[in-house]
Amino acid sequence: MQLPGEEPAGDRREPGAAQPLCPARVPPPV
Q1: Please, which domain of life does this record's source organism belong to (predicted)?
Q2: Tally of CB atoms within 10 A around 8
Q3: What is the extent of the structural domain holding 27?
């Protein structure tokens, strides 16, 4: 049971929130 920020799939849901990865990979939440 991991938080939606610990697992690598969390950054996809909230780009920049969990891990500040390249914003080019994940589409901006517009």
Answers
A1: Eukaryota
A2: 10
A3: 1-30
The count of structural domains within the chain is 1
Q: How far apart are CA 8 and CA 14, in angstroms?
A: 11
- For residue range 1-30, what is the model confidence (pLDDT) as tens digits? 455 555 555 455 555 555 555 555 666 666
Burial 10-23 (b: 16+ CB within 10 A, else e): bbeeebeebeeeee
CB 14 within 8 A of CB 21: no
Integer Cα distance of 20 and 25 in angstroms: 11
Q: pTM, whole model, 2 decimals?
A: 0.14
